[in-house]
Amino acid sequence: MAPTSISLEPGDALLVADVQNDFLPGGALGVQGGDRIVPVLLEYITRFAARGLPVFLSRDWHPPQHCSFREQGGPWPVHCVAGSPGSLPPPAFQAPPSAVIVHKATARNKEAYSAFQDTRLDEQLHAARARRVFIGGLATDYCVLNTVKDARRLGYEVCLLMDGIRAVNVHPDDGRKAEEDMVRLGAVPIRLENLAA
Ligand code: VGL
Ligand code: ZN
Question: How many domains does the chain have?
């Protein structure tokens, strides 16, 4: 059950996964409806920044010839090659300068969907005194799912931004199943209207 009202407090942090051109409609691995969550995520960012709470942004950041690309035998078209136009956030997605960027899946021979995998995110969250992490972004069934799993495993409380996620849905139910998995693991599903003003 989603709570009706959640107050943002010290100890809270926001993590927005992979809002990058290649994951938006028209991009190399465009997620249907991905553009619709951009303004919602910006509003979450505004709410956190207004309270001085830390904001983290992950970016899928592959070397050319990453193992996840079809040419290398992986499942995906070439996407999010580090520094390429597709790897950049869309112009509308302006994050505050204080936001911490987390680059993931940067090693050629290793896939990494979780923003915690081979990054310093856990240390950075600890350094920011974060205990509860609000997680949204792209894509529900890959980065968001695996990041939420790791966050729970590492002992963080998690709020899942239901109005700020979208799925790739390689299989039609993948997004819905991922949401169910995350809630089963203790993620609390919330929406903007659940945040106390
Ligand atoms: C992702 C597909 C391929 C993700 C990354 O981070 O959700 N999905 N690469
Ligand atoms: Zn990727």
Answer: 1
d(CA 144, CA 139): 6
DSSP string for residues in 75-108: SB-S--BTTSGGGSPPTT----TTPEEEEE--ST
Is the shortest distance between the CB of 139 and ligand 1 below 6 Å? Answer: yes
Question: Could you tell me the CATH number of the domain that includes residue 125?
Answer: 3.40.50.850
Q: Which domain holds residue 114?
A: 12-194
Residue 123 parent element (H or E): helix 121-127
Q: Which residues are catalytic?
A: 18, 104, 143
| 58 CA: nearest ligand 1 atom | 6
In a domain, 3, yes or no: no
To the question of pTM greater than 0.90 for the whole model, the response is: yes
**Which ligand is nearest the CA of 139, by number?**
1
Residue 131 lies in a domain: yes
Whether 76 lines ligand 1, by a CB cut-off of 6 Å, is yes
Query: What does the pLDDT profile of the chain (197 residues) look like in tens digits?
Result: 567 899 999 999 999 999 999 999 999 999 999 999 999 999 999 999 999 999 999 999 999 999 999 999 999 999 999 999 999 999 999 989 999 999 999 999 999 999 999 999 999 999 999 999 999 999 999 999 999 999 999 999 999 999 999 999 999 999 999 999 999 999 999 999 999 98
